[in-house]
Amino acid sequence: MITQPFNRVVWPWEPVAGAPMVWDTATALRLPAVARASAVYSGLIKQAPLDDIKGIDPQTPRPRLLEQPDPNAPRSWFMQVNVEDYLWNGNAVQLVTARDVTGWPAAVTWVPTAWVSIACPRRRYDQPSYLVDGIELPAADVIHIRRGADRWCPARGVGVVEQHLATFDRAALEEQYERDALRSGAVPSVAIITPNPRLGETEASTAKADWLNKFVGPGREPAILPAGTQVIPLAWSPTDAQLEEARRLTLLDIANAFNLDGYWLGAPAGSMTYRSPGSMYTNLVRVSLEGVLTDFEDVWSIAWLPRGRRVRFDRAVLLRDDMQTMVATAAAATAARLWTVEEARVYTGLAPVPTLGTLSEPAPAPAPAPTEGI
Fold this sequence. Notes:
By secondary structure, the protein is of the alpha+beta class. The chain has 3 domains: 1-186 and 237-321, no CATH class; 188-234; 322-356, no CATH class. 38% of the residues lie in helices and 17% in strands. The chain has 12 helices and 14 strands. It has a 4-stranded antiparallel sheet with strand order 1-8-9-10, with no helix packed on it. It has a 3-stranded antiparallel sheet with strand order 5-4-14. Strands 7-6-11 form a 3-stranded antiparallel sheet. A hairpin with a 6-residue loop joins strand 2 (8-13) and strand 3. Helix 2 (32-45) crosses helix 4 (75-89). It is flat and about 95 Å long.
């Protein structure tokens, strides 16, 4: 059985025209909240360097494969497109294009998931086949990172768009309804009720034109009207007025679909007055990014490095706090003899040894003033 990792799905059947609505990742990305959630993941993850860890220490210098996995593309771009494929389609696929003398990968390239079809094996532990335009890729050179698993075909993952398709479809319908309401259901700004019960259509049209000639524009001139005339401001109907609240709740639904706190998408959230940037990013990494980072690290560690070594994202880049907080933390750790001065400088983003001048010794504490006898 050959299945396509999610990139196009028919949803739902349109009752009026009798034609299906085709949903794909491009359709979902028309929703600003989906694009924003994707940017939070890919924008943060591509900032974190990749390290080759043996035991607890990173290998130096960093291997070229981790500096630039694809020699023809920047590492940041390579990371972004793979994270986006992982989120949207549930599958990120790379192909080994070169190996070193020991047989380990020396270069890889990104394969867009929309190009790849997976031949689902009949048995759980058999190796699936990967095809692009009907041509089978060498299985030993395919690196496949899956988001969960399709229970009917465990060889492929399930993307956020496929998993929460009904929610995204509802959000798109809300946008369409607002568009139709603004385009064809406009509400006049005021209603003018005249005291003349026999007002003809010609007189009403003339009065409307005179009103527009006098009062349309930035000027604010006084209006002199016959006795008994009423000018009533009009607004959206209560049903249409609820659209704003519905959009806020939809933002929260999309944030939940991407496993994000609503704050990151502008959804209703609690007060952020007493939260520091460091604690907020720590929560974001642990709750949202960590699962994605771990999937990439586990698969790349198996495919790229010998046993005993591990690919790991440098999370310190993502967890940096403001400079004042970092300096206070470094000073406390140095005073407690947990860090050396050099380690504290590296933590705050400085060189281990000053390149200009020397570190000055702290000024001695002033001597206590002599006490006079009583």
